[in-house]
Amino acid sequence: MRLKTLFAALLLGCGMVQAQDDPTIMTINGQPVSRSEFEYSYNKNNADGVIDKKSVDEYVDLFVNYKLKVQAALDAQLDTMTSFKKEFLSYRDQQIRPSFVTDEDVEEEAQEYYNKMVEQIGPRGLFTASHILLRLDQKAEQAEQDKVKARIDSIYQVLKGGADFAETAKAFSQDPGSARNGGLLPMMGPGQTVKEFEDQAYALQDGEMSKPFLSTFGYHIIKMKERSQVPPYDSLHTNIVKFLEARGVREHIADQKLAAKVEESNNTLTQEQILDARAAELEAEDSDLKYLIREYHDGLLLFEISNRNVWDKAAKDEAGLESFFKSNKKKYKWDEPRFKGIAYHVKDNADVKAVRNSIKNVDFEKWGDVLRNTFNRDSVIRIRVEKGLFKPGDNSVVDKMVFKKNVTVKPTKNYPIDATYGKVLKAPKVYQDVRGQVVADYQDSLEKEWVAQLRKRYQVVVNKDVLSTVNKH
């Protein structure tokens, strides 16, 4: 009994020390937020190079709003969505899985790879050689076979007479990959080429040249450059490790380690449960990792709920956008007029009027569809069109014909007649004229309303005494 009491007291004492070392800086809806979490977020978002740095006091409101939105997402149970769980665990596991792999594990894999390579190559070793190839189809007529054989024999006699092998290969070899390099082939070992070539190569010593011989590709002459054994492990170590790393050796090792742990548990644990336990262990040891993972977790929730309540909602709320524009119309002004319409190019003068008549009583947003279906419906393209809201300098045809600028208009090939249709606006008439700006402003408005609602919904208590110690303890 005394031991249990003592153990409990020790645990309580540790908790008190930890709480004193990392006191609560605020509570959001009754949930404590530690000073270290706030510091992690503040320091990350106000590091060197950040343009709009905030003081600690200025950052508090931003942090609280962030936490309120996350709390709203949790209350909406967005963290239970399958898509959220899948994406979050994928990221979290990317941070955790490497902890199962040590440099010693990678070294072991590298040594095993080397040993298998040595075993595969065997005592015959490696070779580097050059060759000359005259191609011959296996189904070639006898006359063609005799012709190619006579030619390779002639080349062989030239080489025996002292001709340079590399220059001769460049001139006559029909293997384009090696001919340009004087016939030089990459280093090879057993099983990397056809048997006829391999047998001839391994029969040669350094500097020796083979007689002409036939393979499934045609006739060859080989000149051996160098025979060698596999270099020592130490000389290949760096390259082997790089090769294995590029092929995902650490992921492979992690898979093996996790599978082994599942087996050790007699399949009572899943890989995800093992990863959960390792995550908890590592987060307890490394607060930066804990907050990095939490940041991603909360960031996913923040994105989803913000998209639902602000971003996507504003972009799709046509009635809301129109109402917002009308209520704030004075805010949207231009420093110079705009031409709302089309600049178009036709082959026939009759189409100048035909284009105007086709869209005269049509909503601007539908002009493109009408013109496409009326004039460019089949394979014959009758008109070329640029549609939009143009300011001076945007379009040379508009500049010359609408804004009366002294500009040069480059002719449109095959469409020599230029025309315009539309009207000049001194200020936006409908929200579509400044849609991007209205959407952004409407989103800001919705977000402010939403945050105000969250402030009323959730209680926020900031400990000013602890706040004053941020980055000063």
Q: How does the overall form come out from the CA principal axes?
A: flat
How do the strands of the widest beta sheet line up side by side?
Answer: 2-1-9
Radius of gyration, in Å, reads 38 Å
Sketch the major β-sheet.
3 strands, antiparallel
- Number of continuous helical runs: 19
Uncertain regions: pLDDT < 50 for 5+ in a row? 1-19
Task: Please estimate the helix content.
Answer: 55-70%
Distance between the termini: 39 Å
Provide the succession of SSEs. Answer: HEEHHHHEHHHHEEHHHHHEHHEHEHEH
Mean pLDDT: 93
Note the beta-strand portion.
5-15%
Q: Report the strand count.
A: 9
Could you say which structural class the secondary elements and strand pairing correspond to? alpha+beta
Structure description:
The protein is an alpha+beta fold and 473 residues long. It is 55% helix and 13% strand. The strands form three sheets. A three-stranded antiparallel beta sheet has the order 2-1-9. Strands 3-5-4 form a three-stranded antiparallel beta sheet, with helices on both faces. α5 packs across α10 (233-246), α13 packs across α18 (435-457) and α14 packs across α18 (435-457). 19% of the residues are buried. The model is unreliable at 1-19 (pLDDT under 50).
Entry keywords:
473 residues; flat; 3-stranded antiparallel sheet; alpha+beta; disordered N terminus
